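does this look right to u?? NAP version
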Amino acid sequence: MSTQIRPTVVVLGVTSAIARATANAFADAGHPLVVAARDETELDRIASDIRIRYGVDVHTVSFDATIQTTTESLCERCIDVGGKIAGVVVGFGFMVDQSTGQSDPGVVRLTMDANLTESAVILERFAAHFEDQGAGFIVGIASVAGDRGRQSNYIYGASKAGFATYLQGLRNRLHKQGVRVLAVKPGFVDTKMTWGLPGLFLVATPDAVGQTILRAVQRGKDTIYVPWFWRYILLIIRAIPERIFKRLSL
Ligand SMILES: NC(=O)c1ccc[n+]([C@@H]2O[C@H](COP(=O)([O-])OP(=O)(O)OC[C@H]3O[C@@H](n4cnc5c(N)ncnc54)[C@H](OP(=O)(O)O)[C@@H]3O)[C@@H](O)[C@H]2O)c1
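got this back:
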């Protein structure tokens, strides 16, 4: 059993490579964790790995972002096992090939549900909890794909744009209560979500993203692009006039 000198952090979707790296970064900084995911076998494996590597307490909670009863009760179940919670990281997400979504309404719904609707349902509960507590932090992983709609990825991009706007409003609401909200916008990261995709460039490692998220929380940042240079790439992409942009094959 570890000596717990730091407050507990909740990481949702810890079977994601980025979320797992973020959980590792917080554990390495001495934070006990509550980790949550839908694959219970992998969840237990990851929890054991973190306990052994970093010597912190790790509790597990299962949820599926497509099952409302599990998302609506998630915050309370995390508090039940973890006690006082310092912050939550929403690390799960869903993306499949855009063409699949164009022909399958179920995929459009899954994308919006996981990345936006149920993420917001979950975070409203954490927001109310942190508001009562008068402290806390929320991290949401959006994406550079939400900064401008492109023909190759606009269903996923729309869900992430919605999530980024949601986080912005939440930050505005919670600022006076001492609760910080960080929106993370990664570019391409080497995970199973991007495995085998054509045209990837400037690909970051999940570990680098996890470390960057920890530092951004410690510094009280609002929005970060990861790696940083994506802020400038997106600045250029957003500046392209629509009459030109709509003719491009992006
Ligand atoms: N990789 C990139 O280039 C990139 C870029 C920008 C933003 N992001 C965002 O970063 C976050 C982490 O993604 P990643 O790259 O680390 O991908 P990943 O390794 O494929 O992880 C995706 C995670 O989401 C979970 N998930 C999907 N649907 C779920 C559901 N209905 N209920 C519960 N969990 C669900 C998956 O669970 P299972 O393991 O059970 O499938 C998995 O843990 C996502 O929000 C993603 O959109 C990624």
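The chain has one domain: 8-245. idk if thats expected tbh
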